Structures are given as C-alpha cells and as structure tokens.
Amino acid sequence: MQIDIYTDIFIAGGGPAGTAAALCLLTHTTCKVVVAEASAYDNVRVGEHVDASIFQLLEYAGIPRNAFDNAGIQEGYNSEAAWGSDRLISRHSIYTTEGRSYQLDRQLFDPFLAAQVATHGGQLFPRTKALQYQQTANGHWTILLQHETKGQFHVHAKFLLDATGRQAQVCRHLGIPGNRYDQLTGIGAYLQLDATHTPEQKILLETTPEGWWYYATIPGNRLAVTFFTDSDLIKKHQWQHHYNWNRLLATTKHLLPLTRGSHAYGKPWVKNAFTQITDTASIKNFLATGDAALSFDPISSMGLGFAISSACHAALAANLHLQGDSASSISYRKDLQQHFRNYLQLRASFYKKEQRWTEAPFWERRIKRISDTVSTDSDNI
Known about the structure:
This protein is an alpha+beta fold. The chain folds into two domains: 4-72 and 106-181 and 276-337, FAD/NAD(P)-binding domain (3-Layer(bba) Sandwich), CATH 3.50.50; 184-272, D-Amino Acid Oxidase, Chain A, domain 2 (2-Layer Sandwich). The protein has ten helices and 21 strands. It has helices at residues 16-28, 53-60, 106-119, 169-173, 231-237, 242-249, 255-259, 303-322, 327-352, 361-379, and strands at 4-12, 33-36, 48-51, 73-76, 79-82, 89-90, 101-104, 123-125, 128-135, 141-147, 151-162, 178-180, 184-193, 203-208, 211-218, 222-230, 262-264, 269-272, 276-278, 286-288, 294-295. Helix 1 (16-28) packs parallel to helix 3.
C-alpha cells in the first residue's frame, strides 16, 4: 500500500542546516515540516570549532543554552597557530573574531538537534534516501523516498529545501551545477589518549609545505587531527593511507608532541572541504541552504555557524514565499551572493599570511591564484 505524507516544507538533509531550518519553522511559523536524513547519524561527522554566537542562533531556533550540557559541546581554553612562521601565536592574530570558543562533538551534537525536531512537532526520517523529485505545474513537489527497512513512500510538499551539505544532492538531481573554486580535501583521524594523559583544551593550526593541519581536543579524552590539502596531491602521494598520513604528521613541529601517547581508531577518513557556490534561481519553490548553498574553506571557521544562520533565513524565506511574498527568496539568494563575496576576500587574506612555500603546489594555488582571481570571481557571482 502506498503511503503519502502531506507537508508544507520538505527538507532534504538532517544535519545542522536541515534540523535548524526545521526548528526555525516549527518555532516561528505554522508550517508543517518533514525532514529526511540518509544516514542513521552513525557516520563520521567531523568536530567543529564555533564561537558563542552559536547559542544565540540555536536559541532563536527554539533550543535554550542549558539544553546543550550533554550534547558534545566543550569550551576551548586556548587557540594557537603556526601560520606564516614556525612560531606559535594566538589564533586571534589570524582570525578576525574573538571571544569564547567551543569545540563540538558532531557525533553527539547532530543527533541531539535531530531529536529536537520531533520534540518541536516535526517529522524526521533517518536512514531515508530521496529517489526522485517531481515538480507539479503549480510548483509543488512530490518526493519518492526509500527507508532502509520500511520501504518506499511519498512526501507531497509545497516547498523544497536542499540541506544535503557540500554534495548538494538535490541541486545535482535537479541539474543545478555548483561553481567550485578549489580541490581542498581533509584527511583526518580521531586519536584516543590513554587514561594517564589529560590534554590541554586547545585548538592548533600548523602549516607545512604540503598543506595545513588542524588539531583540537574533543570530549572523551580524544583528539581530532586533520590534514588539509588538494585532492590531486592526495592521489599523487597517497596521503590517505595511514602510514603516509603518519609520515606527514611526523614532520610537524608543534602538533606531533601533542599527539604522543595517543592511538587512532579506524582508518583515516577523507572529507571534501572545497569552496563552492550553487545558484538555485532557476527552480521555483526551491532553495539551498548551508553547505549546499555555499561551502567554505575550513580556515574561515564559517561552516557550522553559517549553516545554522542560513538555514533560519532560508526557512523564513520559504514561509514568506508560501504566503505570496516571492521577493523573499530573491532577497535570500542575494544575501548569499554578498556573503560569498566577503568570504572570498577573507579566504585570500588568510592564505596571504603564509609566504614560506610560495612555489609549493598547494600554496602557489592559494597565494598567487587566489589573489589574481578573487576580484574577477567576486564580480561574476
């Protein structure tokens, strides 16, 4: 028997962007919301550094600050970088924002937000993939979904949001290409310290000729360590293999001593970290949000905060659109374009600070090419 669910807004993707959009709608509008998430929240979700403004965003979405005590949020007490020289400096010298910082354990944080959707009256289906999107003559959507064990069903929605992350799966399904600016990729691992080691709560960045490293302590006496470089360089040098990754780690000056007394569990994971913008103007009753709309270089520290803030804006724009205010979607997309222009300038300023390896492929692409093209690219968004 075919099962049909009717809703106002369907959200593809149950990560922070998708759940924040749902919570914003459920808190501030009368819209019915359905969210589908392909995973069971058991895949690798990389930890993230955020500032205190994250709590203001989530309070707007209906979740008070005191709700997060056991949701994988740990305050960071130190933030350093060896960027531009081998001398450690305060990371505030690289970043433009200051104040208290926090490290998220996404393995706990993401499922917590997902559970809040049901608590606030929405429907969220984990382990559910969208197989087909069809738009009717009036602009509404019929989505064919496949649950891992319960089979297929349809959701009928008036508006569609893509919150599927950097892969922008709905946009790709609808034939909307993303404008990708680089090949940045992260190869990372979680390291477990033994009971005799208590790490200092800190975040550290360190550059090398091949790319740059990110280190953070996370709840559970663990470390998150990620090497960022370009995908073609990874393929050429096979850095995704643990022995090559460890060899690169051994060349670091500041990071290596922090990892002594730890052991990795599981193979290194590989995650896309490229810069990309996707324009959804060609499709009615449809917006992308979070990384599906704009995806940023992690050096900008803009990922999660932007995902949640853009999701709230997209949610409210969708609600206004359903009330007959079509200008709301246009305004949302214009805001994204301006945000991306500002980001391109910020990204260029970060990489210009490292001038030691201007002939190395990774740095040459960012120091020279970014500087040469950022103005042109910004004008053509």
